[in-house]
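Example record for the data management plan.
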Amino acid sequence: MDVATISANGQITLPVDVRKRLQLVPGDKVVFVENEQGDIVVVRPAVAALLEAQRAFRGAAAQAGLHDDDDVQALVDEVRYTSSKKGSA
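Corresponding structural encoding:
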């Protein structure tokens, strides 16, 4: 377990093991994200964006009536067919 101390200015230094695990180098940015358990975790911005997208779309497949891979493929086929019809008109 790594521990960081907060300075009087509210700053912390990420422990070297954490920086290595996250593959961080000087100049990189990190994001503090609250997970579903209420814990605050440190992640790279790209990971934070992915987590936010997952949250935003949670339940969307079920609402669209997509329950398995076959449903998804049928939707993709339908969109491709509709797009090709528009392109040829």
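Summary line stored alongside the record: The mean pLDDT is 87.
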